[in-house]
Every structure is written in structure tokens, then in C-alpha cells.
From TrEMBL:
Pfam families for the chain: EF-hand_7
Protein name according to UniProt: EF-hand domain-containing protein
Ranges where the EF-hand domain occurs: 25-60, 72-96
Signal peptide segment: none
Keyword Membrane: no
Keywords carried by this UniProt record: Calcium, Metal-binding, Repeat
GO MF: calcium ion binding
Keyword Amino-acid biosynthesis attributed: no
Length: 191
């Protein structure tokens, strides 16, 4: 007789399950975006593919911009971004608390991960997911109002383009860990 999975017993169990579900969702979105950017399906993302992806969302790259995006994460210096480099770039940027990690490609990937209908814009809800993951619950409303000042004032649903998203995200710093969070990370097994 197959065993039934036990329901979570504690708040920590629920939080752990929620975190695992979130990681699985994130990885599925990351794979979807990699496949979208790798338009020739060779397992590598090159400049031409990044330029096409940017044009699809209404953004024309400046000369050298896509080369810089690749150079920032191209660990083996082959002029392309492969899957391990792509995942490494994403993980480094997500966990960066200094704001020093290069974010050119990351901002495009993050935008595409949340542009669920591939329409070249993200909605207020999609933006709120990004802001929540970066800043947490306490800063969510403030950051949303900064992003959509006019819409927040009159309740209009607003959409944001990649250019607007990039401009705003470049201007803000990632969430910094408190001394307590740093101490907990050090005391945590494997930390």
C-alpha cells in the first residue's frame, strides 16, 4: 500500500514547503526564459539572440550592450552564455546584498520571468512579485508606490516596459541583510 505524505506539522514545515515550491517555480521559469533566449536551441545564448529578445519586448540595445551582458557572466570566455553560467548569474544576483553583482542580463531575465504573457510589459501584480522577493513584505507597498506613482494615486492598473523596469531597478539597491540576519546565517548549519 503506498504511503501517504504527511501534512506539515509546524509553521516551519509549511514555510519549508512554501520555499521548496517557490524554488521549483523559479527554476521552471528560469528554464523557460533560457529556452526563449536560446532561439536556435544550441544550448548557448549569443549576442544576436539577446538582440532579438530585446527587440521582441520593444527595446533596441545600444552598441555593445548585449556583448557586455554576455561578458559579465561568460565564465569560460567563449562569447556565449550556457546553462550553468545562466543559473550561476541568476543565483549570484538573487543572493547579492551589496549591489556589486553585474545585473545587465539578470534584469532582462527577471523581467522575462515575470512577463507571463510575453507582451513586453509586466503588470502591477508581476512587479509586486519581484519587489516582494527583493525587499520583503515590509517594503512592498512603498516600492510599488515608487514604481507606479500616478497609478497608485488614482487606482489605475499600470503596465511597465522593460526600459522603465531597468531604469527603476538600476536606481535601487538590493535588500541588505541586518546584523541579526548575518549572524543567523553564520550560525546556521552549513552557513
Amino acid at each position: 500500500m503506498p504511503s501517504r505524505q504527511q501534512a506539515p506539522q509546524t509553521t516551519a514545515d509549511v514555510a519549508s514547503l512554501r520555499e521548496e515550491w517557490q524554488k521549483q517555480k523559479e527554476m521552471a521559469n528560469l528554464k523557460r526564459v533560457f529556452a526563449m533566449l536560446d532561439s536556435d536551441s544550441n544550448g548557448l545564448i549569443g549576442e544576436k539572440e539577446l538582440n532579438r529578445a530585446l527587440l521582441r519586448i520593444g527595446c533596441r540595445a545600444k552598441p555593445g550592450e548585449t556583448a557586455d551582458m554576455i561578458w559579465e557572466v561568460d565564465e569560460n570566455c567563449d562569447g556565449f552564455v550556457d546553462w550553468p553560467e545562466f543559473v550561476s548569474m541568476f543565483d549570484r544576483c538573487i543572493s547579492d546584498t551589496t549591489g556589486l553583482e553585474p545585473r545587465g542580463l539578470f534584469q532582462l531575465v527577471e523581467f522575462l520571468m515575470h512577463d507571463s504573457n510575453n507582451g513586453g510589459t509586466i503588470s502591477r501584480d508581476e512587479l509586486m512579485e519581484i519587489l516582494y522577493s527583493r525587499f520583503g513584505k515590509d517594503q512592498l507597498l512603498k516600492k510599488t508606490r515608487e514604481f507606479f506613482p500616478k497609478a497608485a494615486a488614482n487606482g489605475v492598473e499600470a503596465a511597465i516596459t522593460f526600459v522603465e523596469f531597468k531604469r527603476f531597478m538600476t536606481a535601487i539597491k538590493p535588500k541588505r541583510k541586518t546584523n541579526r540576519e548575518r549572524a543567523q546565517a553564520v550560525l546556521k548549519p552549513g552557513g
